[in-house]
Design a protein that fits this description.
Layout lengths: L11 H23 L10 H6 L6 H9 L4 H11 L5 H14 L12 H10 L8 H19 L4 H16 L6 H14 L4 H8 L4 H6 L2 H14 L4 H12 L7 H13 L5 H13 L6 H13 L5 H11 L9 H14 L4 H16 L8 H11 L5 H12 L6 H13 L8 H18 L5 H12 L7 H14 L7 H13 L5 H11 L8 H13 L6 H9 L5
Length: about 550
């Protein structure tokens, strides 16, 4: 139009001239921006090339939200941290929490942008509202703590600052925000009782009745994981959920029941309403929720045969790949704990047997003993499962005497002590457990007795190496608590049954027995005298004392 020529508004020539006009204006604007002012120092060309574009606050927020990876986002923070306002900081914190689900952080190389974000975040927290503090708590639990480690002083300082600000504005949190921040607390095991207490004060009965089931389940789960007891709150939550179980999903019901069971709070009305409800809706439950339900009932020693029968029938219809090792362990343990026996239960144990064999190396040191104990208690012998379990135990260190005792007890109860390789694995595990007994100065001899009882049932003679490891194991076990005259006598009998005749270990048993000399029963006294006599300790002070206290009929 400037040159007296008009083109159709949608023609290609029209758009070409519009583009040329925009480019000319842009070039003129850029040249004007980089022109030095009058009497100013000439601009260094190198600095011109390294100048970065400074976005506005809203543009920077859009750039942060659209970042695809944490590395890309932290690059933005590193470049523009000096120009970030509060909204930019919260956007970065929210985005990192979201991206952590798809790109888990590692400690190998901490991005410099993360340092800048933390330095920018700390002084601004005093001006944050409740929503912003929830975002910070998610950031700390999901991204920052995995990056630095829970023992980092920087992380601890940020949690302390966050808890202080939570206490300051606690009345402004709504129920959903309370549930989210408590979830972050349990994720990082933050036990700031003052912050938790002021948050829970807002959960009045009226507020609880208006809360969503999902938020209630989150609150209860967090309190159970943090082991925080608040009976009045539990009573109000139990009363509220009892009236609206039909509004809750299967997962939410299972989570709430599990939380009450972990806290040993048997809300009678809640459990009485939940048992028939779960029985009717059992087909809605996934493997995790079904295992949580039966575990909770067994943990609280609640007899619910219809519920257990429905769960046993339902879980065998679910795909095997949907079961995690934890789900299988909890399921089998619960049925064995309640001792629920039926055709459906037998079919369930048979169904899980090959799956347990495949997952034997995936079970933890707590889950694997529970699985073996469940099969033993239900009197279901599976040599393939126990062989796989022994092979799995040989490739991992056992860190608790309890786990080894449960395994050995299950093996002896199912008469699997003659399995190939049993003695080699036994000797190895005994050798590993000697330092465990040294570290656990207050361990109970009950577990040690379970181990020796299982070994005594082994029909094949033990090798000298295994006997040496067994003597060391018993020697350290005698320093634990819970010794009685009967337990000491049982130790002596077990050692004799496996062919141990070392006078040193029997002399230590006799010395430990002296304080209990007056509490020996007639049978235990006779057994102890015979045991000490067989190893040549017939002159021991304990033998004389027992002869006087329990004279023989002859």
């Amino acid at each position: 139009s400037t040159w007296g020529v008009n083109f159709p508004p949608h023609s290609s020539v029209h758009f070409m001239f519009r583009g040329l006009r925009w480019a000319a204006n842009r070039l003129q604007h850029t040249s004007a921006r980089v022109q030095p002012k009058h009497n100013s120092v000439p601009t260094n060309p190198l600095n011109d090339r390294t100048k970065r574009f400074i976005p506005s606050a809203s543009t920077l927020t859009s750039m942060i939200v659209q970042a695809k990876t944490p590395h890309h986002l932290l690059d933005l923070v590193r470049t523009h941290h000096n120009n970030m306002d509060t909204i930019n900081v919260i956007a970065a914190v929210d985005s990192l929490s979201r991206l952590a689900q798809y790109h888990p952080p590692t400690r190998q190389a901490t991005h410099i942008g993360l340092e800048e974000l933390v330095n920018t975040l700390t002084p601004r927290m005093s001006s944050f509202d409740s929503r912003s503090l929830v975002s910070v708590s998610n950031f700390l639990s999901r991204y920052l703590e995995p990056s630095y480690g829970s023992s980092s002083q920087r992380v601890k300082h940020l949690w302390q600052t966050l808890c202080r600000e939570v206490c300051r504005i606690a009345p402004t949190f709504n129920p959903q925000q309370i549930s989210h921040i408590l979830w972050a607390f349990q994720q990082s095991n933050v036990r700031d009782m003052q912050a938790v207490s002021v948050l829970l004060e807002s959960l009045t009965p009226a507020t609880i009745n208006d809360m969503k089931c999902k938020d209630i389940a989150t609150v209860m789960f967090a309190l159970a994981r943090l082991e925080i007891y608040n009976p009045p709150l539990f009573q109000n939550i139990g009363d509220s959920i009892s009236n609206r179980l039909s509004e809750c999903s299967a997962r939410e019901v299972a989570s709430i029941i599990w939380s009450f069971a972990c806290l040993r709070n048997a809300h009678s009305r809640l459990f009485s309403e939940a048992i028939p409800h779960i029985t009717r809706t059992v087909t809605e439950h996934t493997p995790p929720s079904a295992s949580m339900v039966v575990w909770s009932m067994a943990h609280m020693s609640m007899i619910a045969p219809d519920l257990f029968e429905a769960v046993a029938t339902h879980v065998v219809t679910l795909p095997s790949k949907a079961f995690a090792p934890k789900d299988i362990s909890n399921l089998l343990w619960a049925f064995a704990k309640i001792n629920h026996r039926s055709d459906a239960t037998l079919a369930m144990f048979t169904h899980f047997e090959p799956l347990c064999c495949r997952l034997s190396r995936s079970f933890t040191n707590v889950q694997l003993p529970d699985v073996l104990r469940a099969y033993a208690k239900m009197q279901l012998n599976s040599p393939q499962l126990f062989q796989a379990a022994l092979a799995s135990l040989a490739s991992r260190p056992l860190r608790r005497l309890r786990d080894f005792a449960v395994v050995m007890s299950a093996i002896s109860e199912t008469d699997n002590t003659s399995l190939p390789g049993f003695e080699n694995i036994l000797s190895q595990l005994l050798n590993e457990l000697v330092p465990v007994c040294l570290n656990e100065t207050n361990h109970s001899v009950t577990y040690s007795l379970l181990v020796t009882a299982a070994i005594a049932k082994n029909p094949t003679p033990l090798s000298p190496e295994t006997i040496t490891n067994l003597i060391l194991f018993v020697d350290k076990s005698l320093d634990g608590y819970g010794l009685t005259s009967h337990r000491l006598t049982t130790f002596a009998l077990h050692l004799l049954e496996v062919g141990v005749t070392s006078r040193d270990i029997f002399e230590k048993i006799a010395l430990r027995s002296l304080p209990f000399a007056d509490s020996f029963s007639s049978d235990d006294a006779k057994s102890m005298i015979e045991s000490l006599t067989r190893v040549g300790l017939h002159y021991h002070q304990l033998v004389h004392h027992l002869h006087v206290a329990h004279p023989s009929p002859s």
